[in-house]
Write a structure and sequence with these properties.
Helix content: 10-25%
Number of strands: 15
Order of helices and strands: EEEHEEEEHEHEHEHEHEHEHEHE
CATH topology of the largest domain: Quinone Oxidoreductase, Chain A, domain 1
CATH architecture of the largest domain: Alpha-Beta Complex
Largest sheet: 7 strands, mixed
Shape: globular
Number of domains: 2
Number of helices: 9
Distance between the termini: 20 Å
Strand content: 25-35%
Structural class: alpha/beta
């Protein structure tokens, strides 16, 4: 293998509050020659996700922080270019956690083969990727079932829209909140939500009470803050909360006050469960079989916002916190 030059995005400095372009740098690197049991992959698409913001801080979390001066990591789907491992051959399509770079060398254990039959291949970062699996796992976490009324915040995002579509397939009444009239239309017209509202148009609790006057059974939380407080008021007896994300506070530079009505958990006997999608990797095949069948049948749509070129990856990531994506934010590299 001749040595390949590849571009990658490195973390130049740790953000204070909302990240800026100055926190990232674009660098060239040379891919090392393959050794035995190694695979060379060219990334086709890479993912940017809100959870990555936490890894840019220099503090311990459920995943290690990104290192300064080193390339970031994240979901990616790519082509095998060369292989010295029997598990993979050139032309295979694989997913990995080696995003933010054009080429990389990895061992087989760090790659997951996927089918080229489902297009576009970026679906393996969205509905059939970690965000889709996050939606699926969250619904299973609190046993969402037919007849439940479920409210999903950040519903037009990568996780939220899939969670809503899967909840509809389970026979739920689905309500979503999003940040624009365009996103509200997307939820109702393309994702089949029963109702949706723009959280910027008025107090969340007022709008949620209008859409669910008899209350809700499940809250799928992608946002935290005001939306969580509203849900705590709207949840019925024995309601359940899926604590998936809290994008509204990811860039906070000081601790954010908790909901003023947290005591509702006691009186209403609520259940609130948090999770990390990697906890569910042992059921990945089950997820891919179930949701893959829905995608092939057109029962689950994979909506994405695509930016082209690895140099656009920082802007795509920053755009998540400005609500610039409808569905999954993806960067096309090839």
């Amino acid at each position: 293998m001749s040595r390949l030059s590849s571009r990658e995005i490195r973390l130049a400095s740790r953000p204070g509050g909302l990240p800026t372009a100055a926190n990232f740098t674009l660098a060239w690197t040379d891919a090392e020659p393959l050794k035995d049991r190694e695979v060379l992959v060219r990334n086709l698409f890479m993912s940017v996700d809100p959870y990555m913001r936490g890894r840019m801080n220099d503090r311990k979390s459920y995943v290690p922080p990104f290192e300064l001066g080193k390339p970031l990591n994240g979901g990616a789907v790519g082509d095998v270019i060369e292989s010295r491992a029997p598990e993979f051959k050139p032309g295979d399509v694989v997913t990995s956690n080696f995003g933010w770079r054009e080429y990389f060398v990895a061992s087989p254990k760090d790659l997951h083969r996927v089918s080229r039959e489902i297009q576009p291949l970026s679906v393996y970062l969205g509905a059939l990727g970690m965000t889709g699996m996050t939606a699926w796992a969250g619904l299973n976490l609190v046993e969402v079932k037919a007849g439940d009324v479920i409210f999903i915040s950040g519903a037009a995002g990568a996780v939220g829209n899939v969670a809503g579509q899967l909840a509809k397939l389970r026979g739920c009444r689905v309500i979503g909140s999003a940040g624009s009239a365009e996103k509200v239309r997307f939820l109702q017209e393309e994702c089949g939500f029963d109702s949706a509202f723009n959280y910027k148009s008025g107090p969340v609790l007022e709008q949620l009470n209008r859409e669910a006057p008899d209350g809700i059974d499940v809250y799928f939380d992608n946002v935290g803050g005001e939306s969580l407080e509203a849900a705590l008021s709207a949840l019925r007896l024995h309601g359940r909360i899926v604590a998936c994300g809290a994008i509204s506070i990811y860039n906070a530079e000081a601790p954010h006050p908790g909901p003023s009505n947290l005591a509702n958990i006691i009186g209403k006997r609520l259940t609130m469960k948090g999770f990390i999608v990697s906890d569910w990797f042992g059921r990945r095949a089950e997820f891919e079989e179930e949701v893959g069948a829905y995608v092939k049948a057109g029962k689950v749509k994979n909506k994405e916002t695509v930016m082209k070129g690895i140099d656009q990856a920082p802007a795509a990531f920053i755009g998540l916190f400005h609500g610039q994506n409808v569905g999954k934010m993806v960067v096309e590299l090839a």
